[in-house]
Write a structure and sequence with these properties.
The protein has one helix and 23 strands. It has 342 residues and is mainly β. The longest helix has 35 residues. The radius of gyration is 30 Å and the shape is extended. The N and C termini lie far apart (108 Å).
Amino acid sequence: MARFKSFFVCAAFFALAPAGVVLSTTAANADWTDNVFPIKSHNFGTVAVASKTEFQFPIYNTTGREMHIREVRASCGCTTPILSSNYIPAGEKGFLTARFNTPTFRGKKGATLTVVIDQPFYTEVQLKVDGYIRSDMVFHPGSVEFGTINQGDTKTGSTKIYYAGRSDWQVVDIRANQPWLIPKFTQVERGPGKATYELTIAVREDAPAGLFQDEVIVQTNDRSMPRVPLRVSGNVVTSLTISPKSIAFGSVKPGQEIVQRLVITGREPFAIASIKCPGWNVDFDQNDVEKKIHVISVKMTPNGAHGTQRSALTIETAGDKSITATAIVTADVISDQIAVIR
């Protein structure tokens, strides 16, 4: 009888032990994947047919070793996974783009994206997306893509909304997330159970340099699904750049001359017409030579202001189509006077 008890105890121990090991490993993997995949789900909300709808899941390789993603499986054809790279070096960042296939699917859809990692060790991570693709509203084209925009210029893009359904349906507003994106809408056609709107979006001249991927929200009078996003993207590039962009002089005495080396780069050959900075006398060797890169030494002297100074140093190019670029100069202009106590 004791032998049977011993057998059952041992059997119970070995039956439970693997489960404990599995739970421990799962918990460890969960901790690891939480660092590598800080975002594991995304809801696209309500989107229109044919709208370009994507979300980028960031992937941070915090393992200290090169990571290899063997494959990504999607549980539904409504979503296409796109990896930025199968290999992510240690300490680097990658992306998994989830593209919602709005041209071919309708209604409430969702997918699980299973990411299979085999280096530095094997694990599988599940990411989830879902959303609702409404069948009565179509964007054509599905997004507004501006391409390259020169900073300081304005650029306008457009798309159309085609609606079929209620006779009283209408667009009531359109809003952007950025102050430099200016959206407008106009009704161009209306008939029994259908309507067509044209949306125009302008990128204002004060748009910051760099890539942007944003959206504008189309507000309709549909109570159940009033807000529909439209993807907007582009790349604002500068015609002229200054390096360094931030110049810190520290403590400076009135009349003290400081020499600062600047590298000015343009897309096209240019000559420098002027360099100005409020609160400072600026002197440099001026010439009419046009080239894409100028390396110059600028002599700067505070011209009377005292205390903490923050000024914009502006470089303007020569010619009929002159362009400007700015850098920020900071300094603490101190007085060299000695106070006398009587």
